[in-house]
């Protein structure tokens, strides 16, 4: 299999390969997983630690919950375990290993063992070297999508999982379970916070 097609398989939202109801049910099941007893379905403990550390660096706890608070790592593990085919799963393992090898080459140890300043340096380098998502119209990518790589794929999946979690949707974003009337010409300054769907 060519690297290009393998990377496309690990990219989040690469076409309509994953049904939205399945993803949402996985996300809901993550919210019920107790953090202390969570055992990964797909990842080894070392891989889970890498993903957990990575997503917490991308979405740290501030005055709002962080990625680990809403169990983004549990969600990613479930998606890879239940949605990816064997080839995609093996590619994910290879990508995590390659990511840690890049950390070892530069700093002598894996990502989770680095101090925060070195992790930031790693993520800046990954951001710079990762492919970009092509623009899309109505969910259809414009042009041929080049491989986005491990870091961009994980970042995209983490952000998606974070903003679609119940806690963020109901307690951080603006949320109105009973929508009001449609206001077509409301000034942006009056909209306020980003809205949960």
Task: Describe the secondary-structure layout.
Elements: H1 3-10, H2 20-31, H3 45-58, H4 72-82, H5 86-107, H6 116-129, E1 136-137, E2 140-141, H7 149-163, H8 166-172, H9 188-191
Antiparallel strand pairs: 1-2
Helix pairs in contact: 1-5, 2-4, 3-4, 3-7, 4-7
How far the N terminus sits from the C terminus, by CA atoms, comes to: 38 Å
Q: Helix-strand pattern, N to C?
A: HHHHHHEEHHH
- Order of strands in the sheet with most strands: 1-2
The biggest beta sheet reads: 2 strands, antiparallel
Q: Unreliable stretches, pLDDT < 50, 5 or more residues?
A: 1-19
| Oligomeric state | single chain
Shape: globular
What count of structural domains? Answer: 1
* Rg, alpha carbons: 18 Å
Helix content: 40-55%
Mean residue pLDDT: 79
Please summarize what this structure is.
With 197 residues, the chain is mainly α.
Structural description of this entry:
With 197 residues, the protein is mostly helical. It has one domain. The protein contains nine helices and two strands, in the order H-H-H-H-H-H-E-E-H-H-H. The chain has a two-stranded antiparallel ribbon with strand order 1-2. A hairpin with a 2-residue loop joins strand 1 (136-137) and strand 2 (140-141). The protein is globular. The model is unreliable at 1-19 (pLDDT under 50).
